[in-house]
Structure formats: C-alpha cells, structure tokens
Amino acid sequence: MAITVVLDPRFKMTLINFSFPKIYQGFEVARNIDRVHDALYQHYNEYVVDYTSSNARQSASKSTEGSSSVGGNNSKFKTRGRMEFDQFVRNADNIQPAKLDLDVHLEESDFLCSDDSNLDLDFDALEWWKANNLKFCILSKMASDILSIPITTVASESAFSTGGRVIDVYRASLSTKIVQALLCGSDWVRPLYKTKKQSKVELGSTSITEIAIPFPK
C-alpha cells in the first residue's frame, strides 16, 4: 500500500513522511520509512534487470541482422571498431552514470492538480504515468503494473440463479460455504441435467424463486 502511495505523483514519499509519525511512535517511524524506501528500490531493481535484459536481446538481434545484411571485411571491421569505441565510452572516467528514473521521480516536486478539489478527485495516476512513460521508461512500467489492479467481474449469482442476475436479500446473506456449494454444485449438475423452475413466491417487493436441482443418486 505504501509503495502505491509513493508511485502517486501527488504524494510520493512526502505523504509517507507526513503520515508515519502519526501512525508510529519513536524509532518505529524511521524504521518503517526505511522499510518502505528499501522495498521500493528492491522492487524497482527487478524491473531494471528485466528492462536491461530486454534491451540487450533487442540490440543483439539488430546487430545480427545488420551484420548478415552487409558482407565483406570492411563491414566486419566497422562493426568491430564500433564495438570497441562503445566499450571505450563505457569505461571512460568522465562519463557520469545515468540517474535512475526512480530517483528523478522522488526528487521532483509533488504534482499539484489544482486548487479545485474536484480536479484532484478526478486525477488518474495511470493516465499520468502513460503521459510520462518516455521520461520514466522503467518506473512507468512498474507503476502501471502496481496501480492497475486486475478486476474480473463475474456475475456469480447467474451461476446458481436462473431467475435473474440480481440476488435477493436472502441469497445475499448466505454464508460463504453455502455460496461455494451452490456454485460448485451448479457447475457439476448443469451439464448433466436441466434446471426447472417449480414455484414462485411473492413477498412484498421481494421475489423468491425456488429451483429444483436433481442430484444423481
């Protein structure tokens, strides 16, 4: 949850530093802030490894295609010379390592939507990362994976109710075990038998449908 907050450009570590002293006491404040920081970078480093490996495979594929398309000793010499130059650039002492986009994200000021509270409520962090994916190549992928929660909407009531897609108040209050039994039983019985509606009882504004499910003996 804390990492999700940090990936929101409106809050970042600022909200963590603001809220943790209100939640924890004494040395627990700094300890839990450090835990969030370490977990954030540990998770980010996993994406760095994946991103680097993916780029290396793409570069190797392009290099192979380029070498096979142009023949001759001259082309091989140019390829070898360019590789040596690239290695020289990597080993040059005056070349500063590129700053991690996670560091850039945390060092920049928090994103302010507007003084209008409605705009802040309508803010979509996923859209923000999508718009800034070129600036944050790795972090945007990590943010999209964490902030986008896969949701599978299944009309579970339709699995055991042929009367409609809306569960009445009685079925809505069934225990978990009963619901699971209905779902599993329905999946097992329906391929073998056809359900038949026997009777319908009207109780005020609530309709209760009784269904006979024949179980094999």
TrEMBL record:
Q: Name one Pfam family in it.
A: hAT-like_RNase-H
Point to the regions of Polar residues compositional bias.
58-76
Top-rank taxon of the source lineage equals Eukaryota
hAT-like transposase RNase-H fold domain spans which residues? 1-47
MF terms (GO), sorted A to Z: DNA binding; protein dimerization activity
The segments labelled Disordered in the record are 58-78
All copies of the HAT C-terminal dimerisation domain together span: 108-188
What is the name of this protein? HAT C-terminal dimerisation domain-containing protein
Which organism encodes this protein?
A: Lithocarpus litseifolius
Q: What is the lineage of its organism?
A: Eukaryota, Viridiplantae, Streptophyta, Embryophyta, Tracheophyta
